[in-house]
Design goal:
The complex is a heterodimer of chains A (267) and B (406). With 267 residues, chain A is of the alpha/beta class. Chain A has helices at residues 3-14, 30-42, 62-73, 78-89, 103-109, 111-121, 137-145, 160-169, 190-203, 217-226, 234-242, 250-266; strands at 18-24, 48-51, 97-101, 125-128, 149-150, 153-154, 174-177, 208-211, 229-232. Chain A has one domain: Aldolase class I (TIM Barrel). Chain A contains twelve helices and nine strands. A nine-stranded parallel beta sheet of chain A has the order 5-4-3-2-1-9-8-7-6. Chain B is α/β, with parallel strands linked by helices. Helix content of chain B is 44%, strand content 17%. Chain B is built from 17 helices and 14 strands. Chain B has a six-stranded mixed beta sheet, with helices on both faces. In chain B, strands 7-6-5-8 form a four-stranded parallel beta sheet, with helices on both faces. Chain B has a two-stranded antiparallel sheet with strand order 1-2. In chain B, strand 1 and strand 2 form a beta hairpin. In chain B, helix 5 packs parallel to helix 6. The longest helix of chain B is centred in the first third of the chain and has 18 residues, at 30-47. Chain B is globular, with a radius of gyration of 19 Å. The chains are: A alpha/beta (267), B alpha/beta (406). The interface between A and B is large, with 43 and 38 residues. The structure holds pyridoxal-5'-phosphate (PLP).
Chain lengths: 267, 406
């Protein structure tokens, strides 16, 4: 069983919801990332979404765009991100890691090379924002061969027919984008999300993580009531940006945000 | 490279999912997928509807002023001393470039979808002006995204857009040029997809954009083909067009694809020279990858980050290219070459001096290559250069290079 699947099953048995922080690898500098990952786990994160920096992050708002720019100043490449995962795995063999990014860096090194190396590094799942299932046949086959989970997005605009099509090729969990917009934009509407999740659950048994628009303990707790996982990105990345000049303080202070959300979700 | 390609079969592309061979497709974030699907379905229906065609043709005739002339550049031909050079005068269209052909078409789509708001990205500002123009005519709200660097170098067009009632948003991210404007327009679209139609300005982006932009621009090639037969008594021997994202080039090329004796040359921006790395020539120097919704040739570094580009012409300053060009290149149907900044500037001056026609700096790249190519051809051969736009917008840039403040 994949690490993601067993993690989510275990949480379900305990009646808890997954807390899934997103950070951009190498932001604000490469040395911070692995320490931050450990601190996030220690503070209550269940799965880590590790962003692969890309020069043209079209689906992201300014907060994550700038995170990519900060990482790219240090020349952080996809292979460097895989090295970070390997390093993380030397002391944490339990927490699932999902890579989140755009297709072109993957195209540049080739699907097969990437997937083999990702699997070897200890990556558990891959979410490629600009690779919809229609274009992902080869990629999904490669993921499967390498025992990696395929995480896809569902949006408020996704039709029922597409939800089915997407869930058919997904594994681990599906990621419901709570609002029409880029990362870090508005706040989400929990009632609307709840209604949509009901419809999604009629179609699939896969766990559903909800992301975009979760910015504080309160929204994390209310999303946790309806979703299987709570995905938090821009709030953390904002904090990282604030602390960029004092990178040593980042792991603790960013993890504190996760700690607060964990407590609110479990209360 | 695929061998024995049936050129006629190239006309049937893209396939249902927007593929031109391995290129094209629809690589977009999930939120946009249903909007793209709806647009494809609507376009499939309307493109077969005689009423839609009639409305489009009428707008092109009475609002844009088509057909645009095919002009025999006699003095230029004499000065170059080779093939007979004809200019397809897209510069004479309303708003001064080929871009309006496409915005007229897409505005009709927006209207039939009932969208009250349009957005566009622009580099040189010609597509922004053309979008603001159709928006004014239809009473739609219009927002144009433009890189901060381009806002500086195309100030005239920025003011034109504002006069037309559009809001121009300065894009400060990334390299502050066309690719970043496209990113920002996509972000707007994802946020406002319910009430907004995104008018993409070139033959790139996710399916169905490369197809519908080509179809709307193909009027250039259809007219040129007839005009050439009527005026020169035969098909041209060669076609030359500049390639930014590739819309004016594919518009000229497409109707000639089955005419296997008609050579095609797409001219990319060579910037400071292909060997310097400071250029915008993905077909000459890039490799396949995925950006802005389609698979195509890109300028990128080894790890797949999109590379910065350079061209004196804002409209060519783009690291990607429409996917149909990528496939025409691989199939050997079209040739792609580059012209440097200096050569383009010289062509700008040459055409102005010899023919009294001031070309856009984008089009000047095509003129420069056309002159080079004509020199290698026989006097009885015929060459058509697509004069994609007029040069008023570039006078500031040229003056600055001359050290003159205006
Ligand atoms: C006059 C003119 N020609 C050419 C171009 C390049 O675009 P495309 O390659 O889509 O024709 C532009 C773009 O701004 C333009 O303004």
């Amino acid at each position: 069983m994949s690490r993601i699947k067993s993690c989510l099953q275990e949480l379900k048995v305990k009646g808890r919801k997954a807390l899934i922080p997103y950070i951009t690898a190498g932001d604000p500098q490469p040395g911070v990332t692995v320490k931050l990952m450990h601190a996030l786990v220690e503070a209550g994160a269940d799965i880590i979404e590790l962003g692969v920096p890309f020069s043209d992050p079209m689906a992201d708002g300014p907060v994550i765009q700038l995170a990519c720019e900060r990482a790219l100043v240090h020349g952080v490449r996809l292979v460097d991100v895989l090295d970070m995962v390997s390093e993380f795995r030397t002391t944490d063999s339990v927490t699932p890691v999902v890579l989140m990014g755009y297709l072109n860096p993957v195209e540049a090194i080739g699907y097969e090379t990437f997937l083999e190396r990702a699997s070897k590094a200890g990556v558990d799942g891959v979410l490629t924002v600009d690779l919809p299932p229609e274009e992902a046949e080869d990629f999904c086959a490669g993921l499967k061969r390498n025992n990696l989970d395929a995480v896809f997005l569902l949006a408020p605009t996704t039709s029922e027919e597409r939800i089915k099509q997407i869930c058919d090729v997904s594994s681990g969990y599906v990621y419901y984008v709570s609002l029409k917009g880029v990362t870090g934009s508005a706040s989400l509407d929990v009632d609307e999300v709840a209604t949509r999740l009901e419809a999604i659950r009629e179609i699939t048994d896969l766990p559903v993580g909800v992301g975009f628009g979760i910015r504080d303990d309160k929204s994390a707790a209310s999303v946790a009531k309806v979703a299987d996982g709570v995905i938090v990105g821009s709030v953390l990345v904002n904090k990282i940006a604030e602390l960029a000049s004092t990178p040593d303080s980042i792991p603790q202070q960013v993890a504190d945000i996760i700690r607060g959300m964990r407590q609110a979700m479990d209360a | 490279m695929p061998t024995n390609v049936d050129f006629k079969a190239l006309m049937d592309l893209p396939d249902e999912l927007g593929h031109f061979g391995p290129y094209g497709g629809r690589f977009a974030s999930e939120t946009l997928m249903s909007a793209l699907q709806d647009l494809s379905e609507l376009y499939e229906k309307l493109s077969k509807s005689p009423e839609f065609q009639k409305e489009f043709d009428a707008d092109l005739a009475h609002y844009v002023g088509r057909p645009s002339p095919l002009y025999f550049a006699e003095r230029l031909t004499k000065e170059v001393g080779g093939a007979r050079i004809y200019l397809k005068r897209e510069d004479l269209n309303h708003t001064g470039a080929h871009k309006i052909n496409n915005t007229i078409g897409q505005a009709l789509l927006a209207k039939s979808m009932g969208k009250p708001r349009i957005i566009a990205e622009t580099g040189a500002g010609q597509h922004g002006v053309a979008s603001a123009t159709v928006a004014a005519r239809l009473g739609l709200e219009c927002v144009v995204y433009m890189g901060a660097e381009d806002i500086r170098r195309q100030a005239l067009n920025v003011y034109r857009m504002k006069l037309l009632g559009a809001k121009v948003v300065s894009v400060e991210s990334g390299t502050k040029t066309l690719k970043d404007a496209l990113n920002e327009a996509m972000r707007d679209w994802v946020t406002n997809v319910d009430n907004t139609f995104y008018i993409i300005g070139t033959a790139a982006g996710p399916h169905p954009y490369p197809k519908l932009v080509r179809d709307f621009q193909a009027v250039i090639g259809r007219e040129a083909r007839q005009q050439c037969l009527a005026q020169a008594g035969k098909l041209p021997d060669a076609l030359v067009a500049c390639v930014g994202g590739g819309s004016n080039a594919i518009g000229l090329f497409y109707p000639f694809i089955p005419d296997k004796n008609v050579q095609m040359y797409g001219v990319e921006a060579g910037g400071h020279g292909l060997e310097t790395g400071l250029h915008a020539a993905p077909l000459c120097k890039g490799r396949p990858g995925v950006l802005h919704g389609n698979r195509t040739y890109l300028m990128e570094d080894e790890s797949g980050q999109i590379a910065g580009t350079h061209s004196v012409s804002a409209g060519l300053d783009y690291p990607g290219v429409g996917p149909e060009h990528a496939w025409l290149k691989d199939c050997g149907r079209a040739n792609y070459v580059a012209i440097n900044d200096d050569e383009a500037l010289n062509a700008f001056r040459d055409l102005t001096r010899v023919e009294g026609i001031m070309p856009a700096l984008e089009s000047s790249h095509a003129i420069a290559y056309g002159m080079k190519l004509a020199r290698t051809m026989d006097k009885d051969q015929v060459l058509i250069v697509n004069l994609s736009g007029r040069g008023d917008k570039d006078i500031h840039t040229v003056a600055e290079i001359d050290g003159i403040g205006i």
